[in-house]
Amino acid sequence: MSTQAPTLSMVAGTTYRFSATWASDDPSAVPVDLTGCKATFVVATTQGKALLTCETGNGIELVPSEGDISVHIRPEQTAGTVSPEWSGARYELRITFPSGDVYSLLRGHFQLTPGVIHG
Question: Could you tell me the pTM of the whole model?
Answer without folding.
Answer: 0.91
